[in-house]
Amino acid sequence: MAAGISLFSVVVPVLTGGTIKFWGLALAVIFVLISFTVPKLLAPLAYWADKMVRGLQTGLSFVLMALLFWGMIVPFAAVMRRKGHNFLDLKLDPHATSYWTDSSGSDDVSERFKHPY
């Protein structure tokens, strides 16, 4: 991972018309050599990189879910409410003895399974 980041610092300037950053290339080569010869030296770096990525992932997932809720669920609910749809039928009826709704159709269970939709 560290070698990839170092190599990225070399490739991007070259692709944008700049010159090769030899320090980035040397750093990438060093990281590759260390990872193949003594990988335990990079364990602390991997540990802290993992901690950082998990923290970013937690924050980013929270932000994305909030954007999804406020960008899709709330506008859909507002449009449906504006059109007069009441999917849950939550209005209070003071004269009702029960809020139970009977299902329409026959009481024969086998008949309901023949045509489920």
The 3D shape can be described as: elongated
Q: What is the count of helical runs?
A: 4
Strand content: under 5%
| Uncertain segments | none
Quaternary structure of the protein: single chain
Helical coverage, percent range:
55-70%
Give the ordered list of helices and strands: HHHH
Number of E-state strands? 0
Roughly what is the average pLDDT, rounded to an integer?
A: 83
Strand-pairing-aware structural class: mainly alpha
Biggest pleated sheet: none
C-alpha end-to-end distance:
53 Å
Radius of gyration computed on alpha carbons: 30 Å
Could you characterize the architecture of this molecule?
This protein is an all-alpha fold and 117 residues long. Helices cover 66% and strands 0% of the residues. It has four helices and no strands. Helix 1 runs antiparallel to helix 2 (22-37).
Brief sketch in words of this structure:
This protein is mostly helical and 117 residues long. The chain has helices spanning 2-15, 22-37, 43-83, 109-114. Helix 1 runs antiparallel to helix 2.
Q: How is the secondary structure organized here?
A:
Elements: H1 2-15, H2 22-37, H3 43-83, H4 109-114
Keywords:
mainly alpha; 117 residues; single chain; 4 helices; 66% helix
